[in-house]
């Protein structure tokens, strides 16, 4: 915890802890968290919270949590926003598990070690794209409307908060930890119950939460926002997805509005609680298209417009790393296994051009201390109305921040004009250029280290004071003109080390004019100020810089593909860094020696005063072929153990069944994935049709056998979804009884395999959507009286409740490594139903490389789905013809020796060989990073 405070001190974000005389180990340093209309404060110092959303439950590998968190920190983020997923921790009422991949205490410790603030979001309801919106499926059988003060629901959620709140509480900044805010509920906007909203906050306080309580209001709309009245929170925030989610059309802009966060309370900072950082792929267009929809141009225009338009100082971008909805984590309606989200950090942990844009903005936002307290200010007037300006200024320093863009953000033209700019240091005519779909924040009247920046038409990346001088990185679009004006008492000496930069001094202002190209370098000294090294780059060259804080002050690194950490030890700078290719590394630090990932790097001193050396790249890796497959068949409803009699006649679900008994899987404690049904009856020989209904959520299906004979399959349905009219006959399938199958007076058996796709969310807080059943909804075979049994998953303590469903092979542990050897080769053809395949492979990637591996599906005809089990972990569901072909296999789950098992559920049988799959590398880095 002390590391956390030290890091924050270096960031200038908290006051230094007071020294104690005692030699005993210091207790974690407590801090005071406060706020006013401008910002959060820690021990009275203003905090710019630049945060991104990360879900531990979508990355089942704690060693990779650190990797992602380090990448987040390296881009200049000061915080992360974390949902905590009730259903992920609770397989049954009263049962909670925080071990292994569910060890959120470990997660919060990591954020402390890395100096990242946390916005803790434990719901109880959380995220629309995960099963049940984060509710455990057992809650569907509890009486009482979820997300209300109804006693049934209250008792259930109190159990969850009673477990998670104390964990969050002990990691608060007020106790020396990282949690700076606590989010009550999630977009609680319709069907609201203020008593519930009050009670969850009361419980948080009773459980020791003393940081500000916040909420994320939905959609920037006029729905309940909890800014006043009963249930109000201290800092109400706003969620905004201005680009909407149509990834199939990535060129559209601003489908859902202007995206400027509203101020909801006068006494609290403006909080952009979930600002769109990517998109769900409901159209199945592929996440690269979502990344385009929310790419760097969108980020420039919308994020910068929002910062200046709203004055927010609390930002969180949703998602920053999306990850994988592995196992049965997905909600059925809009998502699939990958939750890549088109985010800045890909599912395979790769850094994208969106990451670069985040870094450019984050370094700026967190370097410029005056940004934490601004009011709207008069904006400089452009000569050409085709350019729009808007400004804010810090009332104490008078520093101005001016947004420059097109009035209509969608405009694609390139305009050059002059601003009539009244800066704190005088009036100027300032040339600016705005390209299509671009925006800039220009600064005037700023104390840049020991310098005085009068104004610049370049944007500021960051600046540090290191080795007795200021080093500043400014940037602009490649080929655009830039001008930077600095004030000096007398003519300074100007030395252009690199690039084409013209300078003039008029007795008070040093004016530098240049074209942005590559990286120009200018050394300015004298003039009554400390020396300044000005680095004038482009978007691309600026993004190559990394700003790291060490205990001996900040340093800048130019090059590598990631700097995770920097330490100054005397005259030695030690970096932990990654490269994706061999190349140069340059450091601006008070150091004479450079060590990267534990290796000494030969360097030379450059005219810029930096150290320059070279680093190796990763060696190419060859992944093994997947061969030598073995096979096991799973006959329909096989095995006599583990069946539960299904004979209930009532249900807590508002959706009542078409026939009795109630066959909903949740009623019998089977909550996730596939379930088998067995219906036994005595035939009278006249039955013509098997009539079934199954509710599976979108994309589910079921397969039917009568006396072991395959009758066919049907798509599962949905019902009572508040988005759609109620369907009285959901997921209907009528199957003709083949002649001679049923004989009067003879026992008969119906076997049904239902693939349930997860549980609906509860955005509407009315139970109809969330408590929609899963499994059979109606079943009849003529007038036969059917005795039903159902069989679902067995518990998996290590992998948690969402790993496996109720396939026979899953119950037998066929998906787990080990067990008796699989001897059978795949047959030449298989019947419709469930076929299991297994192979093993070794992965011998170099220890000092981070290789991100995925399983790629090739083409094969037919209607089938495949459950991918890596070393027992269900890494997702491939659906033939579906949008996802690559399934990321995270390191940690992926080891040097691996067992890959595929469960193929096929509606039409066919080739007995396994579906075509191969291993692919989605990333390969030389690293000292993964610890
Ligand atoms: C918000 C919600 C998030 C997520 C997002 C869309 O409404 O709070 O959890 O569902 O929409 O991806």
From TrEMBL:
Gene3D superfamilies: Beta-galactosidase, domain 2, Galactose-binding domain-like, Glycosidases. InterPro entries: Betagal_dom2, Betagal_dom2_sf, BetaGal_dom3, BetaGal_dom3_sf, BetaGal_jelly_roll_dom, Galactose-bd-like_sf, GH, Gly_Hdrlase_35_cat. Pfam families: BetaGal_ABD2, BetaGal_dom2, BetaGal_dom3, Glyco_hydro_35. One of its GO terms (molecular function) is beta-galactosidase activity. The keyword Nucleotide-binding does not apply. Its EC number is 3.2.1.23. Residues 370-545 form the Beta-galactosidase domain. It catalyses: Hydrolysis of terminal non-reducing beta-D-galactose residues in beta-D-galactosides. Residues 1-23 form the signal peptide. It comes from the Bacteria. Keywords: Glycoprotein, Glycosidase, Hydrolase, Signal. Belongs to the glycosyl hydrolase 35 family. This is beta-galactosidase. It comes from Amycolatopsis melonis. The lineage of its organism: Bacteria, Bacillati, Actinomycetota, Actinomycetes, Pseudonocardiales.
């Amino acid at each position: 915890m002390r590391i956390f405070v030290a890091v924050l001190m270096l960031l200038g974000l908290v006051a230094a802890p007071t020294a104690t005389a005692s030699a005993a180990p210091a207790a974690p340093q407590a801090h005071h968290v406060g706020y006013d209309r401008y910002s959060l404060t820690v021990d009275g110092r203003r905090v710019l919270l630049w945060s991104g959303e990360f879900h531990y439950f979508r990355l089942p590998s704690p060693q990779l949590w650190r990797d992602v968190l380090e990448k987040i920190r390296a881009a200049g983020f000061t915080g992360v926003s974390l949902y905590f997923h009730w259903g992920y921790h609770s397989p049954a009422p009263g049962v909670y598990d925080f071990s292994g991949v569910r060890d959120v205490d470990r997660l919060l410790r990591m954020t402390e070690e890395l100096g990242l603030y946390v916005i803790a979001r434990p719901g109880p309801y959380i995220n629309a794209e995960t099963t049940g919106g984060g509710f455990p499926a057992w809650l569907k059988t509890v009486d009482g409307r979820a997300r209300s003060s109804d006693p049934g629901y209250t008792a259930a959620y109190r159990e969850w908060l009673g477990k998670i709140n104390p964990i969050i509480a002990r990691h608060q900044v007020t106790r020396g930890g990282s949690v700076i805010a606590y989010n009550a509920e999630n977009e609680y906007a319709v069907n609201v119950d203020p008593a519930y909203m009050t009670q969850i906050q009361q419980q948080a306080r009773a459980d020791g939460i003393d940081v500000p309580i916040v909420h994320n209001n939905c959609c920037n709309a006029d729905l309940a926002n909890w800014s006043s009245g009963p249930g109000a929170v201290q800092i109400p925030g706003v969620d905004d997805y201005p680009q909407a989610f149509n990834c199939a059309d990535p060129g559209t802009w601003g489908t859902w509005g202007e995206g400027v966060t509203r101020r909801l309370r006068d006494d609290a900072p403006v909080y952009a609680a979930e600002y769109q950082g990517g998109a769900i792929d409901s159209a199945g267009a592929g996440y690269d298209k979502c990344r385009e929809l929310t790419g760097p141009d969108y980020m420039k225009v919308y994020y910068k417009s929002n910062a200046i338009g709203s004055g927010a100082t609390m930002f969180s971008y949703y998602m920053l790393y999306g990850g994988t909805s592995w196992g049965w984590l997905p909600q059925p309606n809009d998502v699939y296994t990958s939750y890549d989200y088109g985010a800045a950090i890909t599912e395979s942990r790769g850094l994208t051009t969106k990451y670069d844009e985040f870094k450019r903005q984050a370094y700026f936002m967190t370097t410029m201390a005056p940004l934490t307290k601004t009011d709207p200010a008069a904006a400089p007037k452009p000569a050409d109305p085709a350019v729009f300006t808007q400004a804010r200024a810090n009332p104490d320093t008078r520093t101005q921040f001016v947004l420059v863009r097109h009035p209509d953000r969608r405009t694609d033209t390139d305009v050059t004009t002059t601003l009539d700019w009244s800066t704190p240091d005088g009036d100027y005519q300032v040339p600016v250029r705005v390209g299509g779909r671009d925006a800039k924040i220009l600064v005037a009247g700023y104390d840049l280290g020991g310098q005085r920046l009068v104004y610049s038409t370049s944007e500021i990346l960051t600046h540090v004071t290191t080795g007795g001088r200021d080093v500043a990185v400014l940037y602009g679009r490649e080929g655009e003109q830039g001008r930077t004006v600095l004030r000096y008492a007398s003519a300074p000496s100007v030395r252009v080390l690199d690039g084409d930069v013209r300078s003039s001094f008029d007795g008070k202002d040093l004016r530098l004019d240049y074209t942005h190209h590559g990286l120009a370098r200018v050394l300015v000294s004298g003039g009554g100020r400390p020396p300044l090294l000005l680095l004038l780059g482009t978007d691309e060259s600026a993004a190559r810089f990394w700003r790291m804080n060490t205990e001996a002050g900040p340093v800048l690194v130019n090059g590598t593909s990631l700097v995770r950490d920097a330490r100054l030890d005397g005259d030695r700078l030690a970096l932990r860094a990654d490269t994706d290719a061999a190349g140069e590394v340059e450091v601006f630090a008070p150091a004479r020696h450079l060590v990267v990932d534990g290796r000494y790097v030969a360097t030379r001193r450059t005219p810029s005063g930096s150290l320059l050396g070279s680093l190796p790249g990763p060696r190419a890796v060859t992944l093994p072929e997947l061969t030598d497959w073995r096979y096991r068949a799973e006959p329909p409803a096989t095995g006599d153990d583990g069946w539960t009699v299904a004979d209930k006649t009532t249900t807590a679900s508002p959706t009542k069944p078409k026939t009795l008994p109630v066959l909903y899987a949740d009623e019998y404690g089977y909550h996730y994935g596939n379930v088998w049904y067995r219906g036994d009856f005595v035939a009278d020989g006249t039955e013509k049709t098997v009539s079934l209904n199954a509710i599976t959520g979108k994309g589910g299906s079921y397969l039917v056998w009568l006396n072991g004979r395959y009758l066919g399959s049907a798509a599962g349905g949905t019902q009572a979804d508040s988005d759609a009219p109620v369907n009285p006959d959901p997921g209907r399938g009528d199957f003709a009884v083949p002649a001679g199958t049923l004989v009067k007076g003879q026992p008969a058996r119906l076997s049904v395999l239902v693939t349930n796709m997860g549980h609906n969310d509860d955005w509407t807080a009315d139970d109809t959507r969330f408590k929609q059943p899963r499994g059979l909804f109606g079943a009849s075979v003529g007038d036969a009286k059917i005795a039903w049994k159902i069989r679902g998953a067995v518990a998996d303590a290590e992998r948690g409740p969402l790993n496996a469903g109720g396939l026979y092979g899953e119950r037998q542990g066929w998906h787990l490594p080990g067990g008796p050897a699989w001897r059978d080769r795949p047959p030449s053809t298989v019947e419709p139903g469930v076929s299991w395949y297994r192979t093993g492979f070794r992965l011998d990637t170099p220890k000092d490389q981070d290789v991100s591996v995925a399983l790629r599906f090739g083409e094969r005809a037919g209607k089938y789905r495949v459950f991918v089990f890596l070393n027992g972990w269900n890494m997702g569901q491939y659906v033939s013809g579906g949008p996802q072909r690559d399934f990321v296999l995270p390191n940690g789950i992926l080891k040097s020796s691996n067992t890959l098992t595929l469960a193929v559920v096929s509606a039409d049988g066919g080739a007995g060989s396994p579906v075509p799959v191969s291993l692919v590398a989605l990333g390969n880095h030389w690293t000292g990073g993964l610890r």
